[in-house]
Amino acid sequence: MGNPKHNLLRILLAALLLSVLVACDDGTRGPGGGDPDGRTPTTNGIDLSSVVALGVGSTPTTAGLALQSTGQTVVAVDEDGQVDELEVKEATFSDFALIDGRVFLTPSDPWSYGCALVEVIDDTELECIDDQLYEVTELQVGPDGTVYYRGMALTESLEPVEVLRKRSPAGEISRVFDLTGPMQVESWAVASDDLLYMTGVSDLAGTSEYWLRRQNANGSLTTLAARSSPQYRLIGVWPDDNLYLVDNDSNLWQIRPENDTLHEIPYLGATWDFDEVIHESDDLDLYLYDLFVGQSQPKTHDGRVLYNYDDGRGYGLVFLEFYPTPRRFESGLEQDRTITAHGDSVYFGGRVRPDVSGIVKVNTTTLEAETIYETNLELLALTITPDGSGAMFSAFDGTNNQYVMAATNLATGDTTPAPTTTNPTRLAPLPSLGSPPR
Description:
single chain
């Protein structure tokens, strides 16, 4: 048997070598460095119980100091309008996503934190989704609570590689699609029946072929026939359980779960281009380039799908309802700066007249617009309190040459602005948190 000490040393070395060789199915590693199928999620304490909104802003650089939070950072806003940079054990966050009542955060320094994507559990705990990622670029949640994500990891030889994975409610991580081959995935979405759809292009023998494909339950791929255009971008599932796409001519299409193929009639299209459409876009003057290239996404609110964009033609901010009735909303403001929805109303924030900003409330049923608040502060980003009685907004105070976060009572107009070093340019109301589906 030899020397027992030598045998013990050999066992330890073999165990160490085995731990190095074991990796996930696509041979990648990341900030956490562990095997995603057998890892223990990292958790750190956090408290969002008194937070009513999250925001993304920028923190000015302090001269001579290299702050971790310099640049884009996530902030938490309480009911009094107090802004605090979201921080856990000296770690800050660069972005957030609110999906189906779940809150996801991306740490500013994933290598230091040990994870590139975390979820808030029960208001207080942060759980790492996949400790092998060092960057996350896309995130979706399927009907059964499975988290789908696209991002970057490192191979065993420390080469960067793009991955598309999913994590089940039980915590199991697996590869969804191999992104390292000639089939370039340009967009992807999970349908209401849990099937994955992808659009992309294949570059083979000097030619490019655009495609739309479905990944079946057994992992095989089915190519779907194109309609008006070979190029599509998947948008997502809307309240009718249909999966929606946009083509490069600003037409919207459906994939219905009962037939799992592209519907033959466009959901939204111009009558001069098609013999039949479900909804006409003739009077909407659509310019959906940002939607087609993935620079912006619609949001679902109380059973309605809403979308706002800068059309790039000098007309300013445009606000649309895609579903259930495609139409445009007009605020009557001199310049629209920010838009949010609450209940049956849409709230616009922007310039009423020179040096005066305001909030305009538009009833989505009657389309009546009413200016409900005016201020000398230059309004930047806006959110409505959960009960609808107040608003919180970030603004620039030109009189005192400083950025502020303000809480206002929409009934009385009473406003409490407080100076802030973080200037949120995006605000989103925080849902009631809890444990995700398991």
